[in-house]
Amino acid sequence: MARQIFAYILHKGGVADDSAQELSIAARKLDPEATVTAVVGGAGEQLAKVCEQAAAIYPEVWKIDNEALAYINAEVIRPMLARIIPAGAVTLVPHEHFGMDLAPGLSIKLNAAYLPDVVGFEGLEGGRLNAVREEFSGQVSTHVSCDISAGAVITVRPGAFQPQEGQGAGGRVVDKSGEAGTAAPRRRYLETVVAEVGDVDITKSEILVSVGRGIEDQDNLEIILELAKAVGGDVSCSRPIVDAKWLEKARQVGTSGQTVKPKVYMALGISGSFQHLGGIKGAPFMVAVNKNPKAPIFQVADVGVVADILEFVPELTEKINESK
Q: Higher confidence at residue 264 or residue 273?
């Protein structure tokens, strides 16, 4: 009997998250012979739209339509998933705020193994899954072996499995709302506090020149501003720059900052922690410059340059201006 893999689909405003495609690729890497099913929770018309999008990727989509899920709550969806996911199945969840809230408790309810923050799969040997995780902010790759014979709940790092063009499943949507039942939460949604947009809305920028700890001093930010002007982009940054109060919070990219979807992303002096990369969607063309050749950012960059940004960036800006 083929292994069953379920992918939990995140969505917002009737639009499926980019991780929907990434989890499909991750499932195939985990077990090419498995049957893969998407699970979407929500309510009303927005849920229907997301199910249509998921059906374009997955051969089958399980829908849980419940007003209690109008604002997604791990405490509510967890027992619902436990009622419909069969014993021995593998469930993939994006490794972000909601996924980290949902997955550990779900693994307990399913009596399944829990494997967090996976960046790669290296194959199955019997009932054991060989996977790759990263430690020490991505400086070390950890190869782990996990017994998934009784099932597993695995959180997958966003961006670790790049989506492929031309995924067209034409899947069917199956309503599992009745089987999933409902749940009474002990916490309830009050309101969404939207971060203030600064002088530039980086969420709408097509080209971002992002700076990190490697800039060393606030006065050195001028070279980043000059490069951004030369390429026609906007300046963004990683968390250390905001913590130092060198740039405003509205320019921070990452899980604790803004989620961006540019066409080109330049990461200058940024190590590439998963918290930062988690804020970058849409698989942009990424250029990374870092003097540490082992920086995790190079694992996801399309072009990587090992250099000190204080020396490299002014030269790059000069060459770009000359080409004009």
A: 264
